[in-house]
Structures are given as structure tokens and as C-alpha cells.
Amino acid sequence: MSKFRKDGGKELPPISTASLPDIVFMLLFFFMVSTTMREVTLKVKMRLPEATELSKLEKKSLVSYIYIGEPQPQFQKTFGKAPRIQLNDQFADVSEVQDYVIAEREARVEAERPMIVTSLKIDENTKMGIVNDVKQELRKSAALNINYSSRRRAER
Hints:
Elements: H1 20-34, E1 50-51, E2 63-69, H2 76-79, E3 84-87, E4 90-92, H3 97-106, E5 117-122, H4 128-140, E6 146-148, E7 151-152
Parallel strand pairs: 1-7, 2-5, 5-6
Antiparallel strand pairs: 2-3, 3-4
């Protein structure tokens, strides 16, 4: 008869880590492709008004946004509760709108400049006085293609 001997001293073989860099780079690539970067940090409260007749913009890359609304709570100590204009990531006065539009136009290719749309994202509780002032500045800078952003009215 043969004897069976138990070797209790055997260790587990080490785990191969050769494919670990491939997995890490594959995950990194996935998150880089699937993540979208926020373009602007909103500093104003934004609840868009409701509308029924809406149309989508064709090329969103040709849209420059102007935000108008009451400042967020963390900015109210500095800027108050009156509606403010936000251009890119900073608050601005009405007189700065014309320079903003010109800078946005200069940043585009010559062929795209006539197709630029200025989209006004205005909080639904904002009074029309500041909106009219912004529209006058847009007229002065020849930005006549204006869009008002809104949200779809819920069906009742």
C-alpha cells in the first residue's frame, strides 16, 4: 500500500499583477470619455419659466449664455438680493455685456460669427427692467439673434 503524505507547508502561489496596469488605464480612459465638464458655475438662482412652444437649438457650440437672477445665498452678503447678471463665471454690470458679446464673437471662426446665438437664461421671478437693459446692450453690439431659455410645461 502506498502512503499518502500531507504537506501542510505549501503556500498559495502569488497573484499575478501583470494585467493590473491595463485595467487601470481602461478605467481611466472610460471615465475620461464619459465625463462631461461643467462649463459655468452658476452663481445666480435659476428656475426657468415654463413654456409650451419650444424648439431645440441646432448647434449648441455656437451659443453664448447670459444668466440673470438673484445671487445664490453664499453671494448675497456681497452682492445683495437684487437680480444680477452673470457672464461666464463672474457677476457683471449691464455695461459689460457689450464687451462680453464682442469677446465671444472674436473667439469664433469668421464663418461662424453670423450664426452665434445669445441665449438669455433668466430666473422666472426676475423683473423685466434688467432684461430690457441687457437687450439694449445686445442691440448696441449687433447681437440680434437672441434666444430665451425655458423649460417644458408639464402636461396636466
